[in-house]
Design brief:
Structural class: alpha+beta
Radius of gyration: 18 Å
Number of strands: 5
Number of helices: 3
Order of helices and strands: HEEEHEEH
CATH class of the largest domain: Alpha Beta
Shape: globular
Largest sheet: 5 strands, antiparallel
Number of domains: 2
Helix content: 25-40%
Length: 152
């Protein structure tokens, strides 16, 4: 079954992370699970998931953030023994929206450890990415500071 079809067959509020069985786990700590990705982007793609249902990163406690970082460090080191690089991807916020195609399928914060996987937009080859001129780059930095920090 293809990933999109599987998602359509799951009901909207279904959270597969609340139904994990012990034999599905790669690792477990007091506050987190580590599992293989059910629909991996590449071989050895892992997920790190809080046991407590949270939606966004800011909902994690300091203890949870520290434990999550320790797991990211532990498993990225293990993946680096057989892979050149590892990407960390945060998935938080709302589930997949079939209208706007927000590409997130589970209403539960989770982290992806994705080995040896280039990151770029599907419709844009790596060679087609824009490289900002110095002036454009400084304008962009200024815009982000204004938008998110309210200062120049």
């Amino acid at each position: 079954m293809k990933y999109k079809q599987a998602l359509k067959e799951l009901w909207k509020d279904f959270d597969p992370f609340l139904h994990l069985e012990k034999d599905e786990l790669v690792d477990e700590t007091e506050r987190f699970f580590v599992i293989p990705a059910r629909a991996p982007y590449v071989e050895n793609h892992l997920l790190i998931i809080p046991k407590r249902k949270v939606y966004v990163l800011r909902e994690l406690t300091s203890e949870e953030k520290e434990e999550m970082y320790d797991l990211v460090d532990k498993w990225s080191r293990k993946l680096h023994t057989i892979h050149h690089g590892v990407n960390l991807l945060l998935r938080d916020g709302l589930v997949w929206d079939w209208e706007t195609e927000i590409q997130k399928s589970v209403n539960h914060l989770h982290f992806h450890l994705i080995p040896d996987c280039p990151i770029w937009a599907e419709n844009l080859s790596n060679d087609d990415r824009k490289w900002y001129t110095d002036e454009e780059y400084l304008d962009l930095a200024k815009w982000i500071r204004m938008k998110f920090l309210g200062k120049k």
